[in-house]
Design a protein that fits this description.
It is a single chain. 69% of the residues lie in helices and 6% in strands. By secondary structure, it is mainly alpha-helical. The chain has a two-stranded antiparallel ribbon with strand order 1-2. The chain has a two-stranded antiparallel ribbon with strand order 3-4. Strand 3 (239-242) and strand 4 (245-248) form a beta hairpin.
């Protein structure tokens, strides 16, 4: 069983499950005049406890967004009464913010339980095997550091009922992949903005500075930041051309491919905790889950 195939079907199952509980979260957010993105911010603040939340906390896992943008989002939550200001850059949940965050999580997980289309033994097997993967990732020595997965694991519910546990296990594994991706490039010398720009050229999604700025407008960076990023990539020989027309060089492709290879190497190393029979069983159960969600959605 190829680990990448197993991870792909996990993501398919995760997406199918998300479709089932997301409307309930959106309904709850609308009731409290809250955008789903703001709930995710409050959820992150909850995982940072007992530390106060700062833009720096968010930038560990999401280094591509500017500190000012994170600060703006935190102050938006303050205006809504869901965060208290500790000082200029430190925040913590208010009682109403905590209660709302937990209530939306309860709504989401209730919807997950109701959406489970499998028989209990099958769902329990998925929970057990995916949970075993999560535990091994938590136990694996650096690199990578396991900062993101530890935060995600704070939200892990009991294994019964299984579907909320499965969903959080998928979230934990995605967090660990972020840990692995960061470990694959942090020592490269490239800035976060340069790496993200390189990734978009590598995927063929942009070809000019203007396209790059439009694509990443939500990051909160000025055009000058991305001008510097392009200059850095051209200096290293990873891009060629100009701001009006740039393209990935052979060296740039090799470098970006290498980051992907290292990310996979780190990410899949703990997966040896499952033997071949367990991987096959998990794969087949996840395929069955995806198909069952399709039928239940008709």
């Amino acid at each position: 069983m190829d680990n990448r195939d197993l991870w792909q079907v996990m993501n398919e199952a995760w997406s199918a499950l998300t479709v089932r509980f997301e409307p309930e979260v959106e309904r709850g957010c609308k009731e409290f005049n809250l955008e789903p993105r703001q709930w995710m911010l409050l959820l992150a603040v909850l995982t940072f406890e007992p530390e106060d939340a700062t833009p720096g906390h968010f930038m560990v896992r999401g280094p591509y967004t500017s500190s000012d943008e994170y600060l703006n989002r935190l102050y938006e939550a303050v205006k809504l009464g869901y965060l208290d200001i500790v000082d200029a850059s430190k925040f913590r949940l208010t009682d109403s913010g905590r209660n709302l965050t937990l209530e939306l999580m309860r709504l989401a997980r209730t919807a997950m339980v109701q959406a489970d289309p499998l028989k209990s033994p099958e769902s329990n097997d998925i929970a057990y095997l995916s949970g075993k993967l999560v535990q091994k990732c938590l136990e694996t020595k650096p690199p990578p550091t396991n900062w993101s997965i530890k935060l995600s694991f704070k939200l892990m519910p009991e294994s019964d009922p299984p579907m909320p546990y499965i969903e959080q296990a998928f979230s934990c594994l995605a967090a660990y992949r972020d840990d692995c991706h960061l470990a694959a490039w942090l020592n490269s010398g490239l800035s976060a903005t340069s790496l993200e720009a390189l990734t978009l050229f590598w995927r063929g999604e942009v070809a000019t500075l203007d396209q790059l700025c439009d694509r990443l407008a939500s990051r909160g960076h000025s055009m000058h930041v991305y001008q510097d990023a392009l200059a850095e990539l051209i200096h290293h020989g990873y891009l060629a051309g100009s701001e009006d027309s740039a393209w990935l060089t052979g060296s740039g492709r090799v470098y970006r491919n290498h980051i992907e290879v290292d990310t996979d190497r780190y990410f899949y190393a703990p997966w040896t905790c499952l033997d071949e029979a367990q991987k096959q069983n998990l794969y087949q159960l996840l395929v069955k889950l995806v198909e069952a969600f399709k039928v239940s959605g008709d």
